[in-house]
Amino acid sequence: MLLPFFNKDGIEVGCDEAGRGPLAGPVFAAAVIWPKNLIVPEINDSKLLNENTRNKLKVFIEENAIAFAVKKIDVEEIEKINILRASIKAMHKSLDEISIPFTRILVDGNKFENYKSIKHHTIIKGDSLYLSIAAASILAKTYRDKFMINLHKKYPVYNWKNNKGYGTAEHINSILENGLTEHHRKSFCYKLSIRYGKLF
Q: Which CATH number is 12-152 given?
């Protein structure tokens, strides 16, 4: 069972991102202030949950969180500043949208940049340890998945409704056959052009 807080004092906000690894699509990040007295065994790292469970928990989180926000950084900016900085920027943007003052930031992983003068803790596998981070991971993942499903309608050949832009064999084959769109991360796909001897 995940922990409801890192420290009982102060107001904590959990942060996580979704979409650092795909070949296409934005990176999303979420920030969540979770009630310290609300334990929900079902909430966990979004990667450990199936799509149906994630979507149900998304609604529950939005209804029960003290505050939450979800923001994205598009492909064009990812290419300019790199995916790590884009992920952190998306987290900062989501924190900007939290209207309730908070005193501590919990971040999944081991990379972050100072946000104002607020103390932060980077926690490896934090999304499987703390409810606020896990809730953020679920929101970031479900919002991004919905974005990619909608994008699929315009570019069905890449099957983004199923692979969500990740480098599955099917997605790679579609890139080789049809080339890249403006939603592909060209710096990510460059390795494919070397591997397959085909320029994009």
A: 3.30.420.10
